[in-house]
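Subject: design request, 422 residues
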């Protein structure tokens, strides 16, 4: 239960084999279609992990197989009634602000328990919630262009605490010259319908938890991996140009019980989307390109999707019990990868990042993805793992995708992560 928009992940892997075919119905027939795949948002056919965003308040019944669950979506006007909503306008224009809301010209010091609405067409400082902030939304009011903010940043926990920003939604913003940076960890985070455009070199335009392990090992022993992170229908676009104004990656991070759906990601200098380790995650209906123009040194884009792992341990929420997790139980479905100008020879990888260490991947389903080849593409996807399933993957213009199993030259111990493939 929670206020709209409410993101929910569904896991039917307990009903049967991970490589089975499952029919999800989210009970939300008016939710529309995905822009990339053209498929209905209300249903998902394929692997046992799926997700949905409920935009309207109400009661919904989601089903898969013989199981059902009731989802209660609250009205945000009720949850954040009166002074729990704060309208912010640098010009003090509060037209269309909800009745009874607080009004102010600057962003609040704390977002906890609030709905903070920014005036469309105006520019603001970075949204920087505290590690102790929970149960809040940041969105827009009025008409016109999305409010522009300098970034969205949730820092690490305070000394002596492992509290991190949690149960929060950021939506309908233009993250103009900054980035979305959650450096340590978070839980129940929805980034929704926002534009992230990075001018100037950076590690990534969206960073989720890449310093979580460092924080856990340095004063925060109970810290958890980023959990229930939902990146949905965002445009995350770097700038095609010189090395100095291009991001290394458009998005990167660690994800547990999470979903990346309906995003457009493109124009990185290295990998478009890099996932260091993930468990129980749904990656679907995205357009993940690789449209960077390489420079004279020939680096350019390396992979539209690079998904590997951090080791061999069973992935749990706790970093202490899984500091080097293997990636497991992942569905990659109905995405469009690449572009006609894609400069690399291989497009995506569900495999170890290199041959230096043993990295485990298991229980993956890659299905119904479309690969858009560039002039040098020879392999659409490389992979290495066990219980890996591929089905229905095609190339734009016709033909089956080339998915190549890699196995040679990996260090001792890698052989136990090599197959079976289904």
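Subject: RE: design request

Done. Sequence follows.
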């Amino acid at each position: 239960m929670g206020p709209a928009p409410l993101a929910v992940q569904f896991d039917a892997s307990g009903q049967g084999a991970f490589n089975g075919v499952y029919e999800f119905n989210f009970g939300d027939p008016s939710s529309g279609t995905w822009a990339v795949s053209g498929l209905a948002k209300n249903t998902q056919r394929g692997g046992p992990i799926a997700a949905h965003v409920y935009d309207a308040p109400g009661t919904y019944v989601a089903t898969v197989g013989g199981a059902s669950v009731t989802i209660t979506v609250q009205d945000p006007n009720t949850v954040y009634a009166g002074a729990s909503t704060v309208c912010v306008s640098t010009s003090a224009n509060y037209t269309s602000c909800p009745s009874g809301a607080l009004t102010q010209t600057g962003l609040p010091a704390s977002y906890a328990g609030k709905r903070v609405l920014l005036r469309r067409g105006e520019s603001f400082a970075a949204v920087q919630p505290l590690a102790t902030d929970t149960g809040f939304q940041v969105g827009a009011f009025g008409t016109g262009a999305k409010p522009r903010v300098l970034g969205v940043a949730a820092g690490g926990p305070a000394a002596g605490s492992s509290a991190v920003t949690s149960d929060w939604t950021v939506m309908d913003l233009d993250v103009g010259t900054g980035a979305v940076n959650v450096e340590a960890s978070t839980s129940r985070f929805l980034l929704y319908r926002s534009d992230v455009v990075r001018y100037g070199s950076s590690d990534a335009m969206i960073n989720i938890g890449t310093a979580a392990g460092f924080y856990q090992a340095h004063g925060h022993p109970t810290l958890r991996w980023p959990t229930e992170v939902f990146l949905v229908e965002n445009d995350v676009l770097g700038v095609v140009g010189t090395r100095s104004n291009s991001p290394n990656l458009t998005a990167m991070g660690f994800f547990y019980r999470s979903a990346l759906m309906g995003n457009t990601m493109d124009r990185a200098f290295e990998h478009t989307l890099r996932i260091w380790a993930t468990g129980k995650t749904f990656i679907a209906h995205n357009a993940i390109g690789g449209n960077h123009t390489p420079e004279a040194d020939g680096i350019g884009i390396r992979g539209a999707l690079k998904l590997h792992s951090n080791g061999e341990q069973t992935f749990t929420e706790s970093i202490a019990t899984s500091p080097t997790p293997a990636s497991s139980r992942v569905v990659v479905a109905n995405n469009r990868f690449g572009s006609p100008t894609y400069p690399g020879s291989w497009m995506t990888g569900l495999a170890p990042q290199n041959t230096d260490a043993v990295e485990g991947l298991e229980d993956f389903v890659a299905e119904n993805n479309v690969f858009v080849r560039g002039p040098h593409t020879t392999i659409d996807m490389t992979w290495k793992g066990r219980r890996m399933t591929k089905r229905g993957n095609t190339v734009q213009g016709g033909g089956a995708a080339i998915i190549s199993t890699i196995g040679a030259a990996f260090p001792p111990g890698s052989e136990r992560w090599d197959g079976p493939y289904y």
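The chain has two helices and 37 strands.
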